[in-house]
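Batch job 17 of 40 flagged for manual review because the log was empty.
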Amino acid sequence: MKAPVKRGQNVQGRWSYPDAEWLQHHYVELGKTVKGLVNETGADRATVERWLAAAGVGRAPSGEGLDPPRRHGKGPGTKWTAPGREWLAHQHHVLGKSVNALADEVGASRDTALVWLQDARVEVRPAYEGSSKSRETQLDCFRRSDVPFECSWCGVGEGWMPGVKGRLQMHHRDHDPTNGKLTNLTWMCYVCNLLEAWLRTALEYGKIDLKCEGHTMVISFK
């Protein structure tokens, strides 16, 4: 099982994602809550929720902290008891339900569901996530995410060199420009983005062999 590892000691340090087996063991088999995983790893809630969503690990909402919303009465004057934060995070991040889908499931309005998420401080997923939208829309939402604004390969920040080439570029991990899920997006500098494209093409056409060990790459030309 691969546990999460933080790279860097500052607040903006990057995390390597744990594998699904580790999350399944701790979250499902041991029954730990998101808060429990936060306390164990030192990551924040939004990061843990992204790990669970990316790995597709979930469990049926039950028990303390996973209370669903309760409706009191019918009609326009309906009042609600807000759901627990764990229930909201499970529905929205782990199961991947949109705000509209969450509202439809319980019979509440979208505005009510959005208030629940905001009051509980559950990170609201971008409305476009998973759909085919323009690169500009993806870039705007990605810039407003909490992903560290640095190259995911070498770690340099914006403006590491003068001019346009010093800007960080949004990169799609699966090379599908229509896949705008946050787990599929990362920042890369100009040089690393070119290097990644060159390596991918060279591997595809059988020009090189590539071995990776940690942060070290060994390239053998055929």
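Reviewer: the log was empty due to a logging misconfiguration, but the result itself is present. Strands lie at 5-7, 14-16, 70-72, 79-81, 169-172, 185-188, 208-213, 216-221. Unflagging and moving on to job 18.
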